[in-house]
Amino acid sequence: MDINALQPEEIKNILEKENIKGYRASQIFNWLHKQLVTDFSKMTNISKDEREKISQIFEIVIPNIIKKQKSKDGTKKYLVEFEGSADQVETVLIKNTSKRNTVCVSTQVGCPLACKICATGSMGFRRDLTADEIIAQVELVYRENDGIENIVFMGMGEPLLNYKNLLRAIDIINHPKGLNIGARKITISTAGIPQKIEKLINYPKQVRLAVSLNSAIQKKRKEIMPIAKKYPLHQLIPAIREYIKQTGRRVTLEYVLIKDFNDQEEDVEALWELLSEMNININLIPLNPAPNSLYRPSSLKIQEWFQQQLHGNGINTYLRKSRGYEIKAACGQLAND
After folding, report:
1. What is the pTM assigned to this prediction?
2. Active-site annotation holds for 104
3. pLDDT digits over 305-317, tens only?
4. Is 261 a member of any domain?
5. Active-site choice (111, 115, 118, 331)
6. Is 133 helix (H, G, I), strand (E, B) or coil?
7. Phi and psi of 281, rounded to 5°?
8. 16 a catalytic residue
9. Domain range holding 214?
10. Are the beta carbons of 42 and 28 closer than 8 angstroms?
11. 1 within a domain of the structure (yes/no)
12. What is the count of structural domains for the chain?
């Protein structure tokens, strides 16, 4: 049984059934998620006999780094394989100008959504990651870099299609006896699944939500994001509005700027109309072209013009720079190559 994603009370219940003192659960949880130990034999405040017995009951998901790359801007990309599995995912550490570390975490092996502006979409879909494997990525990067401040579930896969494992992982990452990373420093990014966004309203932790919009024109959006055919804008936007209304939290909309596609006057006007009176931020991201893609990023001049147009209409808009581009660690580039 994998132990990484178990709460202390769950560990305690299992230990007591095996005639092991229940208070050991808190010690084990501390070793796993505070001390980041991945070997029961190193849990030295537990007797040797008990450690041996515990190791027969539980398994620890151990992530192995197959390859590590570092870009000029300090971004690091890890190709990770989990012990006992041949599946590999990519996990990214991003260092911003304030020297805060952000880890970009994968939730699936590949992705079923096949977005045309994302390299992961070209891989196809293999499986969901377990909660243990999601947690293991965060703790690996934490261990490798002496801590992290922020977590974004923007790596490989669609997080809300792995809803149960995602939230269980967040519960452990946020646990006060573990890494204790604040919920407001955790962002879930989705391509836009209305039912799951509405379900997330009832999740008690104040995580942040980001939605990949990429166009306020349905015809354009479904051209680059096939999921928009199943969940069109007239279903997605009401779900976002309801999320904002019920939680009182601002939502971030991600908008990848594509040359001569979604960076024109009609695109700005469509955004104005679609997003009126919504409590949102827009992140403008220049396209990082996927291999063999016909799409190209908007020029810097157009990016700045687009931002100014949105600002002029009272929409909070930020123009993001790609980080880790030369090691294929930037937004839309993760593909296990």
Report:
1. 0.94
2. no
3. 999 999 988 899 9
4. yes
5. 331
6. helix
7. -115, 150
8. no
9. 63-327
10. no
11. no
12. 2
